[in-house]
Design goal:
There is one protein chain. The protein is an alpha/beta fold. The chain has a single domain, classed as TIM Barrel, CATH 3.20.20. Helix content is 44%, strand content 13%. The strands form two sheets. Strands 8-7-6-5-4-3-2-1-9 form a nine-stranded parallel β-sheet. Strands 10-11 form a two-stranded antiparallel sheet. Helix 2 links the parallel strand 2 and strand 3. Helix 1 packs parallel to helix 13. The two termini are 30 Å apart.
Length: 359
């Protein structure tokens, strides 16, 4: 008789949970208080996306002081001055300041490789020598690097060839990032090669590949990097649509992947908690009804979190939405029912070990 222990759906609230990839861009703590009651710890990711980095840091620093156990944050830096002689030195000083204030790591974003250019018009990749002293510093100090480099491989395909509906919707809404329409930007393969060069050059760097390391299309490719680079981790943020698709085609393969690499996978929702919405009607709603807005955001986040947890922890039928872009695609899938120890690894323990250095 097997002694493997599994969760039941009723265990969701009491089980330990850690969202290791959320964007918390407001001083309002209502969402955080609700997450705390639901036994969910949060790691907010500062990102060089245009929203002021200093403001993101101040929010993270303030909430970390107010909620030292349930809230943490990761810092970032502005890479636009990469060509200046003092660039790396200034960034290292900045990172030291942020780490001293409670940051748990550093994030780099896809503007490196897809946006930044030098004076000659060449795109600056993540393996550019300008960043070497920064990576060396992070490696030496054992500071985790979270990297969103590249995009889903679907990004380089026409809409009709994309594999999941989520990507079709995203690139319809964000055509500037639909690189099929922008062939001048370095290819998907070049983005991955640049990332792998960092892993090779800095083997002791704690490196977390955001969004399944932009290798969401192939768990085999993720596994190859796990096997080759012992300090390479991935988070699941924003890529559960691809996990659902893989499970639809080969459930056993997905189960094996999670079980084999259970200590290298972190859960993240990629949820955005912000009152700085671009839509005019949403700005007005946030201003007039801030508590209602934050409650609605938390309700949607909790629903998503629970759906993902149930999918990994139980064999319950989950409403996934369309699994593929093919006609008559199913919209429901049975959960994987992974052992409790695997679920706890992915949803809690790995984030605590990697980012908080706690056992």
């Amino acid at each position: 008789m097997s002694d493997t222990i599994y969760y039941s759906p009723e265990d969701f609230i009491k089980s330990p949970k850690f969202d290791a990839h959320i964007h918390y861009d407001t001083f309002d703590d209502l969402f955080l208080r609700k997450a705390e009651k639901a036994n969910i710890r949060l790691l907010s990711i500062n990102t060089d996306t245009g929203f002021p980095i200093v403001t993101q840091f101040k929010i993270g620093w303030f909430l970390k002081i107010c909620y030292p156990r349930s809230f943490n944050f990761i810092s970032t830096f502005d890479a636009t001055a990469f060509a200046s002689k003092a660039f790396a030195e200034n960034i290292v000083k900045q990172i030291k300041k942020y780490m001293a204030a409670g940051a748990r790591g550093v994030k780099i974003w896809k503007n490196i490789g897809m946006g930044l250019k030098n004076e000659a018009g060449r795109y600056i990749m993540a393996d550019d020598p300008a960043f070497y002293p920064i990576y060396a510093f992070l490696e030496k100090e054992r500071i985790p690097l979270l990297a969103h480099l590249g995009e889903p491989r679907n990004c380089w395909l026409p809409y009709k060839q994309m594999t999941i509906p989520d990507d079709v919707l995203y690139y319809h809404r964000n055509p500037d990032y639909h690189l099929y329409m922008h062939p001048e930007i370095p290819s998907y393969e070049r983005q991955i090669v640049a990332r792998d060069h960092i892993l090779e050059r800095y083997p002791n760097l704690i490196f977390v590949g955001a969004h399944l390391g932009s290798m969401e299309w192939s768990l085999e490719e993720v596994a190859k990097r796990m096997d080759k680079y012992p300090n390479f981790y991935v988070d699941l943020s924003g890529r559960f649509g691809h996990i659902f698709e893989h499970a639809f085609h080969d459930r056993d393969c997905v189960v094996s992947f999670f079980e084999k690499y259970q200590s290298r996978i972190l859960y993240g929702s990629d949820w955005h908690v912000s009152k700085f919405n671009k839509r005019r009607w949403m700005k007005l709603f946030c201003k007039c009804f801030p508590n209602i807005y934050m409650r609605l955001v938390f309700r949607h986040m909790r629903h998503t979190f629970k759906k993902h947890w149930l999918f990994l922890a139980t064999d319950q039928m989950i409403k996934t939405g369309k699994l593929t872009n093919t006609p008559h695609s199913p919209e429901h899938l049975n959960g994987l029912k992974l052992p409790r120890k695997v679920v706890d690894r992915i949803f809690y323990e790995n984030a605590v070990e990697v980012y908080l250095n706690e056992k």
